[in-house]
Amino acid sequence: MEKKQSSSQASGNPSDYVIATMGSHTALQILHGARQEGMRNLVVCKKGTERAYKSYGVADEIILVDDWSEWESIEDELIKRKAIIIPHGSFIAYMGHDRVKNMRAMYFGTKEILEWESNRTMERKWLQAAGLKLPHVFATPEEIAKPVIVKFHGAGGGFGYFIAKSPEQFYEVKNRKYPEQNDFALQEYIVGVPIYAHYFQSALTGELEIMSFDKRYESNADSIGRIRAEDQLAANIHTSYTIVGNIPVVIRESLLPAFFSMGERVVEESKKLEAGKGLFGPFCLECIVTRKLEIFVFEISARIVAGTNPFTMGSPYSWLKYDEPMSTGRRIAREIKFAIEQGKLAKILG
Ligand code: AMP
Ligand code: AMP
């Protein structure tokens, strides 16, 4: 109902709208990008977390809430301001899918795709249909026959993941550290380097762009190599993957065609899912590249990822294409601005 209402009131003037997001994750970049495209913006922050948005001066308006449970109570305000919500990792994590689905304010992206990305079985079906190489999945701990990475459902930023190479080793760690947790996936551990590919699929032009790549800086996976193997054993360290930051990467140029093709197939396949308009806007394929240059995809994020944060000024790739600083946040704002100007807002709202 509301969606119809908002499009019937649609204005062709971008400054009648406000780009809005939640204060965390990629908000600085999203707000800054809106400014660069001449659009107004606002950020909703949990009280006490607004410092960065004030300090960097990127927000036109900061709305404070005590708790994310208050989101619905400010929604009428957001609707009144013609806010277009940009979802990101923290937004999905704090709101939960059901609340996002029921949100009445304008939303950039396809809400239905969230279910496909968050349900491991559905996600796998989608990526497999797109012809991507995926790590093998073991259905039960008893089947573990080679090193696996154990992922608990909803684990925030890789926290609590561990490696096991046998059923015994799996139960030893699980029963000791996570006795209550029974919702987990057992994925073949791929030996290689992690590469996160950041894409942007334009719903207006149909073009797929590669915006940038990053690798993550994870604690303590990225620090274990700083001590001798025998000290690692002595300290009995279990590898964990708590995300702390992101590091830019430029990939070997001859790998680019493969990354373009992978992104295109994922977008193509998304149109066949029961997922509204399919995948558009920013998304990320989370990959491990092996020494034989095989690219395994272990996850998709169907929204802006924090790995785009090093590129507020654009990446080497977006520089090639745009010849001006083009962050993913700014690319989103540009898509929204063009959609409004061309009377095609409905194309980019989910
Ligand atoms: P935060 O708002 O920083 O507490 O993050 C909420 C969730 O968003 C985390 O649990 C992560 O899943 C995700 N997240 C936040 N920052 C990053 C990052 N730099 N890279 C990847 N995921 C992130
Ligand atoms: P995630 O929270 O799923 O993005 O994964 C956190 C980290 O675990 C990644 O940055 C990778 O370093 C690692 N990882 C996840 N899945 C695999 C896999 N199948 N093989 C090897 N490493 C993985």
Set down the secondary structure blueprint.
Elements: H1 2-8, E1 18-22, H2 27-36, E2 40-46, H3 51-55, E3 62-65, H4 71-80, E4 83-85, H5 89-95, H6 97-102, E5 106-107, H7 113-118, H8 120-129, E6 137-138, E7 148-152, E8 162-164, H9 167-177, E9 184-188, E10 193-201, E11 208-220, H10 229-235, E12 241-249, H11 256-270, E13 281-289, E14 295-301, H12 316-322, H13 328-341, H14 345-348
Parallel strand pairs: 1-2, 1-4, 2-3, 4-5
Antiparallel strand pairs: 6-9, 7-8, 7-9, 10-11, 10-13, 11-12, 13-14
Helix pairs in contact: 2-13
Bound molecules: adenosine monophosphate (AMP) (2 copies).
One adenosine monophosphate binds near residues 89, 156, 157 and 246.
Structure notes:
The chain has 350 residues and is of the alpha/beta class. The protein starts with a helix and ends with a helix. The longest helix has 15 residues, at 256-270. The model is unreliable at 1-8 (pLDDT under 50). It is built from 14 helices and 14 strands. The strands form three sheets. Strands 3-2-1-4-5 form a five-stranded parallel β-sheet. A five-stranded antiparallel β-sheet has the order 12-11-10-13-14. Among the domains are: 14-109, Rossmann fold; 137-188, Dna Ligase, domain 1 (2-Layer Sandwich), CATH 3.30.1490. The protein has helices at residues 2-8, 27-36, 51-55, 71-80, 89-95, 97-102, 113-118, 120-129, 167-177, 229-235, 256-270, 316-322, 328-341, 345-348; strands at residues 18-22, 40-46, 62-65, 83-85, 106-107, 137-138, 148-152, 162-164, 184-188, 193-201, 208-220, 241-249, 281-289, 295-301. One adenosine monophosphate (AMP) binds at residues 135, 149, 158, 161, 187-190, 194, 216, 218, 241, 286, 288, 298-299.
